[in-house]
Design a protein that fits this description.
Strand 5 and strand 6 form a beta hairpin. This protein folds into two domains: 265 residues, no CATH class; 192 residues, no CATH class. The two termini are 40 Å apart. The chain is of the alpha/beta class. Strands 12-20-13-19-14-18-17-16-15 form a nine-stranded mixed β-sheet. A six-stranded mixed β-sheet has the order 2-3-1-4-7-8, with helices on both faces. Strands 9-11-10 form a three-stranded antiparallel β-sheet, with helices on both faces. Helix 2 packs parallel to helix 3. The chain is globular and about 70 Å long. The chain has twelve helices and 20 strands.
Length: 490
C-alpha cells in the first residue's frame, strides 16, 4: 500500500497587512517532512509506503500572492508519482487560507492534484476547526476531518482520523462523498471554547453521529471570523462511505446545523472582556487579591498574532507606560509580551545587557497602530522559540526594562502561548504579577497556570468587536449576530 502525503497550511486574516511569502513558512521537502506529520506512525504500522511531498506551515497572517501559492502547490503536485502508482492521498491543510486572485486556497490545490491523478484515488484532508469551507473542496476531496477542540488540543488526533479514514477507503475500495450545510454565524472564535457551553452541546452530536459506520467523518467548523470572503462562517460536514447514502449525510448535517443555530445567542466570552484601560485596572485588582505565585494574563485581542494580526501595535504598550502608580501597588512587576518591531530589535541587539537607549516601538506593519517612544534598558537577548512546536526558533528577541514594567520586543511576529516560549528568552512567568500577550483565549499551557485571565477589547486586525470590521465581500445582513432577526432552518 502506498500513500502520498503533503501539507500546506496557514490561517489567513484578510484584514491583516502582512503578505507572507514562501520564506515565511516552516518548510520541509521530501523525506524531511515525514516525521513532521502525526499520521506517519499509523501508516507505518499498517505497512504503508509513504510518498512524501512538501510540508509548509506559517504563522497566521494576510493573503499570500497567487504567484507564490501557485508555486507552492506545483511543487507538491510535481512530487506525486507520474505513473499514479499509489493508493491514496493524505493532505493536512487549514481551511481558512485565502490567496490573492485565487480565493480559497484548498480547492485550488485539490483541483491541481485531481488534474494530475484523476478521480479514482481517495483523498482525505485534515482541517482546522476554524476553516471557512468553500464548497468546491467537496468536488475533489472524499473525506474531510476537522479539529474538535479550541484551543486546539487534537491536531495530531485529527491527522490520524483522516489517516484512518483513508486506510479504510483503500482497504474497502471506497470513494466516499462529503457534503456540508453552512450555518450563517460569524461569531468571534474567542467566544467558542469547545469544552464549554454551548459548543460542548454541539460537538458531541458530531462525535456520536460517527458511531454509524456509514458516516466516516462528521465535523463542526466554527469558521475564521476575521476573513472577508464569500465562504466565511460556520458549517457542518458529513462523509458517507457510499455516495448513494448521501441523504444520510445531509440529514445529519441539517440536524446538527439546526442545533448549532438554536444555541447562537449562548456564545459569550468565558472570561471578562473589557475596554483596555479597565482590563489593566481589573488585572491589577485580581493580581493583588490572588494568593498564588501565578500571573494574571491580559489578552491584547485586537493584535492577536495567532489570528493573523500584525503583532506590532503599541496600544497596550502606551497603557502600561501610563500605569506606573497602578503597577506600584503590586508586589511583582508587569510584563508586556511579544511586540514585533525589527528595527528596534536591530538597534538593541548591538547593545550590551545593562545598557540604556531611547527607542520607538509600534506600527512597522499596521500603519493604524499608535507608537511609543520610551527609554529602555536591555535585560536579555536571545532567539525566541517558535509557537507551533516544530522546534525551530522565531528569530531574535530582546527583553527590556521600561522602568515600572518589562517588555519583550521581537524581530518577527510571534505568539507567546506557553511558559516554554517565555523561558526561551530567560523569563519565568511567575516572576510577574501581570503578563500581557497578543492572543485571544489563552492556549492550554497558559490557561493551566494562569491565576486569572482577562480579554482587552483592543483595536487591530483581529479585534473581537466584529461590528467595527469593514466587510466588503461578505453581506453581513445574511449572518448572525449582525442581523439578529435572521431566520435559518437547514
Amino acid at each position: 500500500m502506498k500513500i502520498v502525503v503533503g501539507s500546506i497550511q496557514q490561517e489567513v486574516n484578510t484584514f491583516s497587512p502582512i503578505k507572507p511569502t514562501k520564506e515565511d513558512f516552516f518548510y520541509l521537502h521530501g523525506e524531511d517532512m515525514i516525521d513532521q506529520i502525526a499520521v506517519t506512525p499509523l501508516f507505518r504500522e499498517n505497512g504503508v509506503e509513504i510518498i512524501p511531498t512538501v510540508y509548509g506551515n506559517a504563522v497566521p497572517s494576510g493573503r499570500m500572492t497567487a504567484k507564490d501559492y501557485d508555486a507552492f502547490c506545483r511543487e507538491l503536485v510535481d512530487m506525486i508519482p507520474d505513473d499514479n502508482d499509489f493508493d491514496g492521498i493524505w493532505l493536512y491543510c487549514h481551511g481558512a487560507m485565502d490567496v490573492d486572485e485565487i480565493g480559497s486556497a484548498e480547492p485550488y490545490l485539490l483541483k491541481m492534484v485531481r488534474d494530475k491523478v484523476g478521480y479514482d484515488k481517495p483523498i482525505a484532508v485534515a482541517l482546522d476547526f476554524h476553516a471557512n469551507l468553500d464548497y468546491k473542496i467537496f468536488d475533489y476531496a472524499n473525506v474531510i476531518c476537522g479539529y474538535r477542540t479550541a484551543p486546539h488540543a487534537d491536531m495530531p488526533g485529527t491527522q490520524i482520523r483522516a489517516g484512518e479514514a483513508l486506510l479504510r477507503c483503500i482497504k474497502e475500495k471506497l470513494l466516499p462523498k462529503t457534503v456540508a450545510v453552512r450555518v450563517p454565524l460569524i461569531i468571534s472564535g474567542d467566544m467558542c471554547i469547545t469544552a464549554n457551553y454551548p459548543m460542548n452541546q454541539i460537538m458531541p452530536e458530531a462525535i456520536k453521529a460517527e458511531e454509524n459506520p456509514e458516516l466516516m467523518a462528521v465535523n463542526v467548523f466554527h469558521g475564521q471570523n476575521w476573513a472577508d470572503v464569500p465562504n466565511a462562517g460556520a458549517s457542518v460536514t458529513a462523509t458517507v462511505a457510499h455516495p448513494e447514502n448521501v441523504d444520510l449525510a445531509l440529514d445529519t448535517c441539517k440536524r446538527i446545523a439546526n442545533k448549532y443555530w438554536s444555541l447562537r445567542e449562548e456564545f459569550k466570552f468565558m472570561i471578562q472582556a473589557l475596554e483596555p484601560r479597565t482590563a489593566v485596572a481589573e488585572a491589577v485588582k485580581s493580581a493583588n487579591a490572588k494568593t498564588s505565585a501565578a500571573p494574571v494574563f491580559i489578552s491584547d485581542s485586537g493584535d492577536n498574532t495567532t489570528a493573523g494580526a500584525a503583532g506590532d501595535r503599541a496600544d497596550m504598550f502606551n497603557i502600561f507606560n501610563e500605569s506606573k502608580e497602578l503597577f506600584e501597588t503590586m508586589k511583582k512587576p508587569a510584563l508586556l509580551g511579544g511586540v514585533c518591531d525589527k528595527p528596534t530589535v536591530d538597534k538593541l541587539w548591538e547593545m550590551n545587557v545593562g545598557e540604556t537607549a531611547t527607542v520607538t516601538v509600534g506600527g512597522t506593519f499596521d500603519k493604524n497602530s499608535p507608537k511609543i517612544t520610551i527609554d529602555v534598558t536591555v535585560r536579555h537577548k536571545s532567539n525566541i522559540l517558535n509557537w507551533d512546536g516544530d522546534g525551530a526558533d522565531a528569530g531574535r528577541a530582546v527583553v527590556v526594562s521600561c522602568g515600572h514594567f518589562d517588555a519583550i520586543i521581537t524581530e518577527n511576529r510571534c505568539a507567546l502561548i506557553s511558559p516554554e516560549i517565555f523561558a526561551s528568552v530567560g523569563i519565568d512567568i511567575n516572576d510577574y504579577n501581570i503578563i500581557c500577550v497578543k492572543l485571544g483565549y489563552l492556549y492550554p499551557k497558559l490557561a493551566e497556570v494562569a491565576a486569572d485571565a482577562i480579554i482587552a477589547l483592543t483595536k487591530g486586525n483581529s479585534t473581537v468587536v466584529l461590528d467595527t470590521l469593514e466587510f466588503t465581500q461578505l453581506d453581513k445582513n445574511n449572518f448572525y449576530p449582525f442581523n439578529k432577526e435572521l431566520v435559518f432552518n437547514a
